[in-house]
Amino acid sequence: MFRQGDVLVVPIAREELPEGLMDAPRDRRNRMVLALGEATGHAHVLTGERASMLCPPDEPGRLYLLIEGYGRLAHEEHGPIALAPGAYKVVRQREYFPGAIRPVAD
Hints:
mainly beta; 8-stranded antiparallel beta sheet; two-stranded antiparallel sheet; 10 strands; about 0% helix; globular
């Protein structure tokens, strides 16, 4: 399990990947962004060889990673994290805000 700021990357068995996943949308710079800081513009970005960011067709915010070569998670304010081949679930940290539970914004 890996934590980079408000993003948690949890290894899962490849068989636990949901059926029908598709490539998750990329940002305007064609990056695989797991989370984007609303205030700073900093991003948790996946790079690597044969690394994919996937999501269910109807839930673009529910992310999974499939690393078949090597993967690297980078962020402007945190150290890089190397990801070994395998499947991962992405979990965003949440916070209570009066009347709602929302993803943490940096």
